[in-house]
Design a protein that fits this description.
Radius of gyration: 15 Å
Structural class: alpha/beta
Shape: globular
Order of helices and strands: EHEEHHEHEEEEEEEEEEH
Largest sheet: 8 strands, mixed
Strand order of the largest sheet: 2-1-3-4-14-13-12-9
Number of strands: 14
CATH superfamily: Class I glutamine amidotransferase (GATase) domain
Length: 203
């Protein structure tokens, strides 16, 4: 099993790699799009702004390689935090920017409904919307660690895996075929986060 973490210049690559290694994976952090073709699983991490993230992905030549890995090779992909948001059609952080378009929807700023603080930082629970293999053996209402100001408005509600009760309610994980995304950081989410990573590796 070879897990490739996409290095497009944004993200806590080291902590993600260490968590995956503790879950039994052989991990490669790569800045070479051609490495995706030999991957068993792909991680798209990210910390920062949507516009800068997509700019780096385009300039690094990642878009065609990601599309081939997803659509032709059927390799499981997991987007984490900004990495999940980049799966969308479009994002509005730093100006309107085209995303990867792997999960239909838009990324917009969270709106406080009861004086919640933005950015949303800290532990919060997830509420399951589907019987997802990504959340196998993880109890409903489990807590995960979040750091974000923007959220994913998903067009097709059947692709919403979990929601989280903050700023009303926001989508905290998605799935479209072999493409998965989580708004939280599993590598920082202790037991539940490591179980999720093991579930992903078992796909």
């Amino acid at each position: 099993m070879s897990v490739v973490i996409i290095d497009y210049g944004m993200g806590n690559l080291g902590s993600v790699a260490r968590a995956l290694e503790e879950c039994g994976a052989d991990v490669v952090i790569s800045d070479r799009p051609e490495d995706l073709h030999s991957a068993s699983h792909i991680i798209l991490p990210g910390v920062g702004a949507f516009t800068e993230g997509m700019s780096n992905i385009y300039s690094g030549g990642w878009v065609p390689a990601i599309e081939i890995a997803v659509k032709q090779d059927n390799i499981p992909v997991l987007g984490i935090c900004l990495g999940m948001q980049l799966l969308a059609d479009v994002g509005y952080e730093g100006g309107e920017t085209k995303g990867l378009g792997l999960v239909k929807g838009q990324v917009r700023l969270l709106t406080s409904t009861s004086q919640e603080r933005i950015p949303h930082v800290g532990w919060n629970e997830i509420s399951k919307r589907t019987d997802s293999p990504l959340f196998a053996s993880i109890p409903d209402r489990s807590d995960f660690y979040f750091v974000h100001s923007y959220h994913f408005e998903v067009n097709d509600q059947s692709q919403v895996e979990t929601v989280t009760p903050y700023c009303g309610s926001f989508v905290s994980s998605v799935r479209a075929g072999n493409v998965y995304g989580v708004q939280f950081h599993p590598e920082k989410s202790q037991r539940s986060g490591f179980q999720l990573l093991r579930n992903f590796l078992s796909l």
